[in-house]
Amino acid sequence: MKRNFKYIFVLILLAVAVISWREAFGRDRDKLKFYMLDVGQGDAIFIETPSGNQILFDGGQDRKILEELGKVMPFYDRSIDLVILTHPHLDHAGGLLEVLKNYEVGELMDGGDSYNLAEYGELKKLMEEKKIKYEVARRGLKISLDKGISLLVLAPDKLIKSDNPHDNNVVSRLSYGRIDFLLMGDGEKGEELKLVQAGDNLESEVLKVGHHGSKTSSNPLFLEEVNPEYALISVGAKNRYGHPAQITLDNLLAAGAKILRTDIDSIIEFKTDGDSLTLVGEK
Ligand SMILES: [Zn+2]
């Protein structure tokens, strides 16, 4: 009898835990949630659509991604629908290895670059072992993420033979109603100007600033086209590259953007119903 009570007590505790997690994560069901995670020096963006489809862009450089995902995903959710690697540099690809080991990933997409990074090789191997669907991102590819929500790939338009993975960096624009997020990966000035010259509609409420706010990105001509309300910089505190550059911060401010940085603001979270955009936690 005593034992039965123990079991019942544990069951009640479990039920309470599940209900409170559902409460915490189940609100705003009609909203798209966008998180720029705080992975230190690197990039990682997690998106959840109103129907619960989950997309992860890059995974930072190491296991920290697991900690960060744990903050935005309920503990019982062990799958991610789509993982997009913008380019195989360690600070974007390293953590994805941990993601593939710890989550069931539906599909992986990248720019098709066969860059010689040990972790990237391991990632590809693991992808094959786990039989994860693989797709190369190419300009013009439009992925429907949910009703009224799409992701349009703007770059690369073809595979460039190069030692620099930034030459095959994936750029995409996430659109929900009148709200757009431009995700630049490590896109630099050359890539920005190419997009401007192609006449793409770049106007976006949120710009994920290219290459951690380095001085080689965020050209004023490009910023004029994007006209961002918010500029997000994913950067490690006191990183050895000196990111972000003062000139880039000045350019972003001159373009009228509010700057948010993971080294100062930690996780940056937006919610949108496709009409209005809310920066969660803004006072
Ligand atoms: Zn890079």
TrEMBL record:
It comes from the Bacteria. PANTHER family: DNA INTERNALIZATION/COMPETENCE PROTEIN COMEC/REC2, RECOMBINATION PROTEIN 2. Pfam families: Lactamase_B. This is Metallo-beta-lactamase domain-containing protein. SUPFAM superfamilies: Metallo-hydrolase/oxidoreductase. Residues 41-237 form the Metallo-beta-lactamase domain. Gene3D superfamilies: Ribonuclease Z/Hydroxyacylglutathione hydrolase-like.
